Every structure is written in C-alpha cells, then in structure tokens.
C-alpha cells in the first residue's frame, strides 16, 4: 500500500460494510493527494473513477471539517453532474457525514445560485460555463480562497476544444485565488496521457501531475447485429433492424439505445414504439428536450422504471445506472473512443463485461463497425489533438474577470499564460484582445455600445458601466447553438426546443414528431411554437448540428479491410461478395491509395473518389471540385458525399481527375469559397457571440435568431470592408478552417492525391459506388426518413453494379 494512502476509519468501515476494499488506483489517488500532487487518473469505465476522485475530499473533510467550499467538481454534462450528486450522497448519508453536495448549472434556480455564493456547500458540482460565471462576481475571491481541490471528470470530452480553453483559464484564476489548489482529472479514454498532464498542470509542468493508471477491466462483449435478410446497400439509421433491436430490449433488463443525432433518436424511438407489442416502458433523451423531460427520463432510469432509453451524446459520459445490461449503437460509432464510452454504460462494473450491439446502416458501416470492434479489442483509441487557445474565448474570460474586479494588464497576461492553451500568447495579441473588449476595434470604436472596458489613471482596467456586467452574465457561454424555438402546449408545459430553421418551415396544421410525441402546430409566435398532441401522420425534426465524421483511426482500419483479403472471411456473405465483385470489375484501393472511378450513369458522367477522410472533409472537397469543374468547362450538376467517398456528377466526362485534386485548390478555390459563402459568416456569428460583441439576450427579452444573425452580418460586412484584419475575423477564419471544414484531413488528401491516385474508367457504376450514388437527389432529406426509399432504389442500381459481364 503506498505511503500516505491510509483511509480514515469511517471510510474503511464504509467500504467493509459493503464488502468492498478500495482498489489500488483509488488508494494511489489518495496518496497523490496526501503528497499535495495534481493527478490524472486513467481507468476503465466501472473502475470507480468518480469515487477515486472524491476519496481524498471525503478523507480530508472527515479529518478536518469545514463549512467552506472545499472541492469543485467540473462535468461536461448537466446530466452527469446530477448523477454524480445522487451517487456521492449515498456514502455521505450512510456514514452520517455533515457534508453538503450541490449542483450548479444553467438549470439551477436563481435563489439557490444566490445562496450558493453566500454560503457555498463543501462540494459543488458544476460545468465550465457556470464556473466562468461564478468567477465574474465580486465575491468570487472570497468564495474560492479556501478551495482545496478541483476534480475534472471526463476530461477528454472538452480539454481539446473551446470549453477546455475556458476551463484552463478558469483553473489559472482559481490557482491565483488559492495557491495550494490541487487539480485532478479523470477519464477512461485518453490516448495521450502526457498531453493531458500538460493541459492539467499549472504552466504546463507535466512533472507536477501524477499519472495514475487503473487496473484493466473485463473485456467488453460486443456483437454486430446482422439483418435477417442482407446487409443494406444504403441508409445510415439502422432502422431496418428495429424488430431485432426490440427483441434485444425484450431479453435484457435495461437497454440504452444510442443514436448519433437528435433526429435519429426521435425516429428510432417512434419506430420502436410501432413494434413494441409488449408495451414496455421506453423513453427518449437528447439535449433539445426540456429540463423536466430530461430529468424525468434520468430519474426513471435511476429508479429502474424503464426497459430502454433512446439517447444521444447527452448520455455518453459517466452516467452510472447499475441496471443497464445492454447498449445498442444505431448506425456506425464513428470512433473507437466514443464506442468505448458508450458501451461502458452497460454493466457499470469493472469485473463484469459490458454488453453491446452495433447496428450498421449499410455495407460500408458494417466494415466501420468491425473496425471499431477490433480497435476496442486492441486498445487503440482515437488521437487527441491539442491546439492554441481560441481568442474569442479569451475575450470572454477577460471580461468575466473585469466584472469581478479591476485588473492590471501585465498580471492578467501572466495568469493567462499559466494555462497551457495560452502559454505562448504573444503580448501583441493580448493587447489586441484587450483593446477589442475596450472599444470593439478600429471600425467600431465610434459606438459606445462596444466600449466595455476603460483604463483608469491607476493603471487598472475596469468595466465601463454596470450595464455591461449584467450583459456579460446574461450572454456568457461557449456553446452557441443554432437559434431555437420553444415547443410548448397551450397550457404552458414545455417540451423542449427545435431549431428556428426547421421551425420556420412549419405552419398551423403541420405535424412533426418531437419528445416522443406526434404534435400539430396550433400557432407560431416570435420565439415559441404552440402545439397539441395529434394522431396524424408526422414528419421528423431535422437539425443543423455538427455531423460526426469517421475518425482517421477507423478509416485506416477500413482501408486495410478492403486490401487484405485474409480478413474477408470474417464478413457476411453479401459483404464479401460485394468486395469480390468490386475487385473483379474495378479495384480495391490499397492503404494510402486514392481510388477514383469515372463512369456514365443515367445520362450523366460521374466521378467517385474513395478517400475515407470523413463527411466534413468530403463536403468541403465537393464544393471546391465543382467550382474548379465549372472553371474548366466540365458543367458540374452537383455532388454527394458520405464518410467514405465523394461522388461528383455533370454533363461532361472527366478524362483526367488529377487537376481536380491539385493542392493549390486550397490556396485559390478554398479561400474564395470560404470568403464568399455563408461559412465564414456562420463562424463569425459564433465568435462574435462568444467574444461578447453581440448579445443574444437583454434583461427580460431574448433576441430571435434572425435578429442575432442580422446584427452579426451587419458587423461582419463593416469589418470585412474597413478592418479585414480584425481580431474576430481572424478567429472566425481559424474556426472555419479547423472545425467546419476538417481542413487538416482535406489538406492531407490533396497533398498526397497526385502520387497515390489510381484512376479507373468504367462502362457503368461499380459495386462500391452504390452507397454514395443513390444519395443523389436525397441529400436534403431528413436523416432516417428516406431509408425505405433508398433501400428500394439501391436494389436497382446494385443489380447493375453487380453484373459480371
């Protein structure tokens, strides 16, 4: 047993009363705390990570009780914070400890938030955004001055993004308030532990963070569900297998059915109800549902009242419901780390295997599911990519600090540089961020509404007037969703929110599925959609949210499957036949090779490139290639893409595809396209909101999405014309390149295309082209709703593709 890892008697007795003994990694975490070290715990799901993170806190509060805030727990999800509170209260109550545990999120009532600042609990569970808001209050120094520990759960979920930037800055500020503060991070899926140790540590000092590795758990039991007939050619929802999914639910105690999108979750829920002959209790859970609806579903699961819950990423992380004995993934998982997180929700115990079923939507997705299963078995996780901190996030943080108290610029810069994402922040960039908050920049400084900070004669920066403080607290946040409409019944009961873009297509009398119900629109108000329940036929809500793309890890494994015939014996007969005919009629690309096919079909000329770089990169490439085709006189008509391939079609034959994949497309067409399309405006809207340039809410009034868009577009046009080097335009450009277009994978594809391309000209469509080709004309249809039609159409095209003559 490591020195200093001894538990207080009360904790030892509690473990013994349950027939447990602390695991090695739990004692190691206690030893690190006794030594005053920061710690990163990497342990499998079900290994008791959360208890390991809180064990030092419980020990310290037993040995030295306090009525001050002792531990801050940071969660990526509101649902996880609530679940942790529920599970943490059990040992505290059973030991009779006088320790208060409370949550603080956007869902917490105002009066409780007010009381928490005046009299905080010993343990406060919150999110990065709520912590940032707490730091904007004048009493934040008093509240956090005795803070001993920060526990960051599921750190992989946000450390490499903007929420991680905000949290890293908040940690630096907390460290200044409480110099002895200890930082702890927990995760089951970390591919680069040293990268996370550097992110966690003050000033990136990796040696100050102890790495604790948990014991290996039981290997998961994962199966790929095969249809009773054949693996479909097309479709991506897996709804063809709904009767088989229902059979799995019937034979298990409790099942979570994971879907990659909110729209697919609603579709799957409705399809399951159609075949739910036993009338088993089934729920649905996703981020657009109302707080009440989500809490009801979470509590019903915790109480064992549901046989199945259809959910999205809103329940990916850490939620511990002991009765869940099966996880079903609808469609391909898109990443091995994500799959590992999701299957960990079943049999949430280290020594028992998690049981999971993957339901691939089509033949490519079967290969992807097999690749994900192999990656999990071999312990290969998706890589974590750390990047410099975002400037819009930095602006928001500085404004929050100014709301709490005046500050001196050099001290603020020193504090900011202690956060790894901003450790290399240059003085000139910092000054530009500061001046942006002070007056909006050169083009906007004539307007008082942008003068948020003032430099006093004492050398301190302070908020210009109290109204800006209220404005910041009302509008701060990193997650910028599409503009939303509230969905509610006439009696005021709220069901949740749908995107304004979809809502604008609805009129009184229209029907749609939402929150598991068929709803009819009664009337449309400015920010509300008034509905009533109906039994009429309804359509499914569509969302503009980010689409999950296959990770490079899984894409590379799929490439190996195509090339390595020794693997084919593991595949179903129809998948193996598909690959064999493809090899006979065309070719199968080797790993690192770009196969490009050209062929005529239905009076048009088609080009299909099998690049496996993910949907986002393929969407961008499709836009660029069609622009270049237009300039070359090839008369393009359009393109479609999936995670595996891009198909472009037009009126003229593409004799040589190499010029279409030239790397200079990123220097010419890409820049021109981004600047002229709505892409950059959307990115600017987000950074303008995060950076505080445009507010979404005023006291007692919330702007509509159209009003916010109008404001940001107006400012965007002014800055493009008069200050093209404005800080937020630079930030928007960085976002558009890095996130919205997956430009890293796109650049790699174009850099290697010339040397690796294998071009095959065919007389007709090939077998491997079928899944992407049948999407033509259907790419705007809501996910899942067109699957039946796609299946029928695929059979016709597939018959042509599989002919051996």
Helix content: 40-55%
Task: Give the helix tally.
Answer: 29
Overall structural domain count: 5
* Mean pLDDT over the full residue set: 87
What is the distance, rounded to the nearest whole angstrom, between the alpha carbons of the first and last residues? 71 Å
Shape summary = globular
For the biggest sheet, the summary is:
7 strands, parallel
The parts where pLDDT drops under 50 for at least 5 residues are 779-790
Counting helices, strands and paired strands, the structural category is: alpha/beta
What is Rg? Answer: 27 Å
The strand order across the widest sheet is 3-4-2-5-6-1-7
Mind sketching the topology for me?
Layout: H1 9-17, H2 24-34, E1 38-42, H3 49-63, E2 71-74, H4 78-95, E3 101-104, H5 110-118, E4 123-126, H6 128-134, H7 140-144, E5 149-152, H8 162-177, E6 182-187, H9 193-200, E7 209-213, E8 221-224, H10 242-251, E9 255-258, H11 262-274, E10 282-285, H12 291-302, E11 308-311, E12 326-330, H13 336-343, E13 355-359, H14 363-377, H15 391-404, E14 407-408, H16 409-417, H17 427-439, E15 453-455, E16 460-463, H18 466-475, E17 484-489, E18 494-499, H19 500-503, E19 511-514, E20 517-524, E21 528-533, E22 539-540, H20 552-563, H21 573-585, E23 594-601, E24 604-610, H22 615-631, E25 636-641, E26 646-650, H23 669-676, H24 678-690, E27 697-698, E28 701-702, H25 705-722, H26 727-740, H27 743-756, E29 757-761, H28 770-773, H29 787-802
